[in-house]
Design brief:
Elements: H1 9-34, H2 55-67, E1 73-78, H3 81-94, E2 98-103, H4 110-124, E3 128-134, E4 154-159, H5 169-178, H6 180-184, E5 191-194, E6 198-202, E7 217-220, E8 223-228, H7 229-242, E9 247-249, H8 256-283, H9 300-308, E10 321-322, E11 325-329, H10 355-361, E12 362-364, H11 388-397, E13 402-404, H12 419-428, H13 431-441, E14 445-449, H14 457-468, E15 472-478, H15 486-502, E16 505-509, H16 515-522, E17 540-543, E18 547-550, E19 554-558, H17 564-568, E20 573-578, H18 580-596, E21 598-604, E22 607-611, H19 629-638
Parallel strand pairs: 2-3, 3-4, 7-17, 14-15, 15-16
Antiparallel strand pairs: 1-8, 1-10, 2-5, 4-9, 5-6, 6-8, 11-20, 12-13, 14-18, 16-21, 18-19, 19-20, 21-22
């Protein structure tokens, strides 16, 4: 019998790698064949029709009558993690009929645990809960959030779900290889609505890092609490996503038994990891009497205790600012369903809506009086079939005593476009396009916060046009050191010289969570209750607020960034509020951060210079401040290779 040939170790290794590569290709191919479930049942449901019958609805009406305002919607800025978290707790506790939550990411950690346990308790007392979650992050421990779908009176759907295993993010890498374009398009909206009467929106997802409870790093973020009729517009936005074919009930994607097995495997892995950590810690134990190492992370139990010490916000102490407003929201069709091809992403926004189009949206009141001044409507409305750009223009130019109507022409619903046309239209007129319309109306000042700032060609044209009109433009974004997505900073860095040459003032937030940042974005007054939330003072700060203020009178807060991903791929939502008072409050907070907690980038004959924050004791820098050499090298190497629309 002949001997089998012997192979060198190098050939054996090559064969193994080839088999692994073939297995990977086969896995991707099988996943592509498996696809998503067909003929899924999606019972249609809508928001609570009569919010005035609830305690929250009556609270809103009482406040409005007491303050004798003509505007039907009120707002309060939720500047810090304590106010952001306690307001959500308060809405869950106060809800009597419905809770609607829409998020890009919910992390299975201490902050979400307490919040979702409260949501489950609300469901047990009879509150109908609808939870809509983008599917991108639902892997590993975070997939356990899907267990909420099996609680009675809770419905949970996943938007634009991906195929592949949920045990770890590696499975998602397979999905990315198999369907790259769809994986890139995500539902980035954030809404938290109780009884269709009071809601919260802004930049925050749900998790420790969004509520000041993480040891490694916390996001500096901003939300707004809205009350009154504008919330019904927010709910209509939620309904349009909830009842969309891209939203899949959790039960159609995974069983409870599969989630139980995943939970057990995660517990086993975490227990093993904890034993290793404890063994390593014992080997390197601090000698008796010696001080503990600085910056040592707290335990999960400590973080849980910290968040459970939070008290719900006392809504009776909230001082609402009443103002006209509109919801700017992308249509769900911006993310195409399976089988629908997408046209190449446009590089510029659509033409400005004509005065005739705006006029058609503005209906006079019953009194018939029409003001001639270019001011905003005094009542709130959002039109599902109206583009964000048109709404932005209408809110800033409509008569003072007018209201946006329910459609154009005779009021009949528009003809339904084909899926391909619907997707193309939804991708061509977006929330970010609405912001560009607002930028075009600025006459004095533009103040922008965008944590991921990668301006496309049309955005650069909007900045150039504003500067040509003499508008002061200031932008606060992340520094390389504070950016949790350094590759996005690479795209921004490409545009820095052009923006500076235009006269745009660029500020980059420090990565250290200073007292100034806690004061500017974290002061909550007495609204948040007793327990303060927040990790130790050494945690890293990462900017996550998304905001624009126009001429000190128009304020936009939402989920969007000023980048091509928000403009053309992800879906977004924002509130556009016409309020000098809220604009002044937000501007004061941001001004403090720009002066004392951010580097100002300037162009000199010798190159870029980062001017140190006032009274920081830091020296000016000529390279990306606070960033390590490997990180700066990565920026230089990978930056030129990454296209703007993928950052």
């Amino acid at each position: 019998m002949p001997h089998l040939p012997s192979f060198s170790p190098q050939l054996t290794s090559l064969a193994r790698r080839s088999r692994w590569a073939l297995a990977l290709v086969a896995t991707v191919a099988l996943m592509g064949c498996a696809g998503l479930p067909k003929d899924v049942e999606r019972p249609v449901s809508t928001a609570l029709p009569n919010p005035g019958d609830t305690t929250l609805g009556q609270w809103v009406e009482t406040r409005r009558a007491t303050q004798k305002t003509r505007h039907p919607s009120g707002f309060v800025l939720l500047s810090g993690p304590q106010a952001a978290y306690s307001s959500r707790l308060a809405l869950v506790d106060a809800a009597q009929k419905t809770l609607d939550l829409q998020y890009y990411a919910i992390h299975a950690d201490a902050s979400s645990e307490r919040l979702l346990l409260s949501v489950a308790a609300a469901a047990r007392r009879g509150v109908r809960v609808r939870l809509l979650l983008d599917d991108f992050h639902s892997t590993g421990r975070d997939a356990l959030v899907m267990r909420l779908a099996f609680v009675p009176n809770v419905e949970m759907r996943m938007f634009n779900p991906l195929t592949g295993a949920r045990g770890s993010p590696v499975g998602r890498m397979f999905s990315l290889l198999g369907d790259f374009s769809r994986v890139q398009q995500r539902m980035h909206n954030k809404l938290f609505i109780a009884d269709n009467a009071v809601g919260v929106t802004g930049g925050r997802n749900l998790g420790d890092a969004y509520f000041g409870n993480s040891d490694s790093g916390n996001f500096v973020d901003l939300d707004v609490l809205a009350a009154g009729s504008i919330v019904q517009d927010m709910s209509r936005s939620f309904d349009s996503y909830w009842n969309n074919e891209r939203a899949y009930p959790v039960q159609s994607l995974i069983t409870r038994e599969e989630l139980d097995r995943l939970r057990d495997s995660i517990r086993t892995a975490e227990a093993t990891q904890q034993e290793r950590v404890e063994s390593a810690g014992a080997a390197a134990a601090t000698p008796p009497g010696a001080p503990s190492p600085a910056g040592r992370s707290s335990t999960p139990g400590t973080r849980r205790a910290r968040i459970w010490n939070q008290e719900p916000m006392d809504l009776q102490q909230v001082q609402l600012v009443w103002a006209p407003a509109a919801v700017l929201v992308d249509r769900p069709a911006k993310i195409p369903p399976d089988g629908v091809s997408t046209a190449p992403l446009p590089d510029q926004n659509p033409p400005r809506p004509s005065p005739a189009t705006i006029a058609a949206l503005v209906q006079p009141r019953a009194s018939g009086t029409v003001a001639t001044t270019a001011t905003a409507p005094s009542t709130d409305a959002v039109v599902a079939s109206t583009s964000p750009a048109t709404l932005a223009a209408a809110l800033t130019t409509a008569p003072a005593n007018g209201t946006l109507g329910n459609g154009v022409g005779n009021g009949n619903p528009p003809a339904q476009p084909s899926p391909d046309n619907e997707t193309s239209e939804a991708q061509a007129d977006t929330v970010v396009d609405g912001l560009l319309q607002l930028m075009g109306q600025a006459r004095q000042d533009l103040l922008i916060i965008s944590p991921y700032f990668v301006p496309g060609p049309d955005m650069e044209r909007a900045f150039a046009a504003a500067r040509d009109r003499g508008v002061r433009v200031r932008v606060l974004t992340n520094s390389l050191a504070s950016n949790d997505a350094p590759i996005a900073h690479a795209g921004y860095a490409r545009h820095r010289p052009t923006l500076l040459a235009m006269g745009v003032e660029l500020y980059e937030m420090r990565s250290e969570l200073t007292g100034v940042l806690r004061g500017a974005f974290g002061s909550t007054g007495s609204m948040g209750g007793a327990g303060g939330s927040g990790a130790g003072g050494s945690s890293r700060a990462m900017l996550h607020s998304k905001l624009m203020i126009v001429d000190g009178r128009l304020l936009v807060i939402g989920s969007m960034n000023l980048d091509m991903r928000s403009q053309r791929q992800n879906t977004e939502v924002a509130l556009l509020i016409r309020s000098g008072e809220l604009s002044r409050r937000a501007t004061a907070q941001i001004d403090a951060a720009l002066q004392d907690a951010a580097w100002q980038v300037q162009q000199t004959d010798q190159g870029l210079v980062w001017r140190a924050p006032k009274d920081s004791g830091l020296a000016d820098a000529t390279t990306e401040p606070d960033a390590s050499l490997p990180l700066r090298l990565m920026l230089q190497l990978l930056g030129p290779l990454a296209p703007d629309h993928l950052l």
